[in-house]
Amino acid sequence: MRRAPPLPYAQAGLSDEAAAAHALNRLAFGPRPGEAAEVARRGVESWVDEQLAPPASDPDLDRRLADLDLLAWTTEEITSRYLTPAFALRRAVAEGAVPEGYGPRDAEVRDRLRAWMDQRQIRSVAELRRDLIRAKLTRAVHARAQLREVLTDFWFNHFNVDGRGGQILTVPTYERDAIRAHVFGRFRDLLGATARHPAMLTYLDNWQSRAPSGTPVAFGRAPRRGGINENYGRELLELHTLGVDGGYSQADVVAVARAFTGWSVIPNRGDPDAMEQVETGLARLESRGAPLVRDGLFVFRPNWHDAAPKTVLGRALPGGRGIEDGEDVLDLLAAHEATASLIAHKLAVRFVDDDPDEGLVGRLADAFRRTDGDLGAVMRALVADRAFWDAARSGPDGAPSKVKTPFEFVASAARATGADVEDVRGILGPLRDMGEPPFHAEPPTGFPDHAAAWVNAGLLLTRMNLGLRLAAGRVRGARPDLDALTGGRQPESVDAALRTYVGALLPGRDPEPTVALLRPIVREPAFARRVAEAATRAEAETAPALDDDGVFAETADAPLDADDTAAFVVGVVLGSPAFQRQ
Predict the structure, then answer these.
(1) How much is the mean pLDDT over the chain?
(2) N or C: fewer beta carbons within 10 Å in the chain?
(3) Is residue 476 one of the residues assigned to a domain?
(4) Does a structural domain hold residue 296?
């Protein structure tokens, strides 16, 4: 077997350590203390190979997540054990445990509602949301298989679902089964897993899309009420596969929507009576010979499926069929030239540059087509491309080309300071204030992945303030290990501390520009206080994301101790322009 050529980072002018740092910043959530030097010693190619074929187990990560039993549950188990406050109140009122006329946060009924939930072992979605974000951040900070977590974040954003409110109930298995399980597999499998998952079906309203009355259906007669919903069909074409310029028409959108009629969800919100009614109706259909398809809470309802002939992108779909219509559309889209180009472009934006070279995009699209959409092979082609390594110095003044998103900043700062993340309650508020509360992107486009969305004075103040607090150990649930940055040796002066910590936190880069920029700042003792005050004012002017259960309001951090020189200098470096780049 012919050995692949070495990674071309030397041609890009990178030393082994600079290449290791770049790989850790792009293919991971940043280096931990000393990790860039260790990867350089072991070999950058060996580390990349390990990330592209990660081990099946991670005992340390498993230990950190052991108390989060929900991560192993099915969607049915989660939706039956967690309820939104409003739904829990309706259930409690129906059972006579709580009087009518109150809201779930009203003091008159709050304790009684909690007692009712405890008695029935029902948990609040606020707890689910907090635990799910804790799992995401814990994986980003501590997982050995860093690339898998980076790609899980990337593909969740590509196939975004809005996890606000009760929609969070379907997010744990969506991230686990539809996204994470397929990030190194074939794109067609990833596409199909998202298409069938209750999170996507409910988010884009396909669960209620059905053939209009009078239309021939795959079994029985068309429903009297309802009709086709085009939301999923449109986003499938525009965002998930072909792209806005992918050569499809409105007629194709309608035809795709018709192909997915009947792709639905079995409602399950912990209401036994409602569930029994649904199951009775499905059993009646099956007893009549209906070709029902069930997979967890996914159900294909043939009596809702438009069985008339269709044409999608010039391809005829014969009449009289059922679920095959949707599956054939997914096959067609996954193999389309425009899909290869769209996926290649999005990967190039995420891992190389906000405005990637078209030559790189073309090479990645060729790899996608050549391997039948093998996403692991496409990633290998990306890392083997000279453009990936050139990006380490193609930004302003020779800096890296990409700016970290708020989540990437938080994860990288925790990793850079050797922080142990045991709780996320001190981080949730800053993530909201920086504009990226996890699982809360409302539009199907997800969170943006370009610098313009994340670089403005207010957001940078919040980053600096969080960096100062994190370094000082003033962020609840995150304990930094600053001794790991220096081997336990304390610098003898502020200037020595600045040079030491710039080198440790920005491995593989020329430290002089950052040292020169930050030297006046670290000599100003009132700087941290002024940052905190300015950040507080900026955050107060920012419209908060919808937070119906109060999770992102948990920001009670301890006061900052500006007399801790090491923590102050580390915090300034974390908030510096250089650390914002990856």
Answers:
(1) 92
(2) N
(3) yes
(4) yes
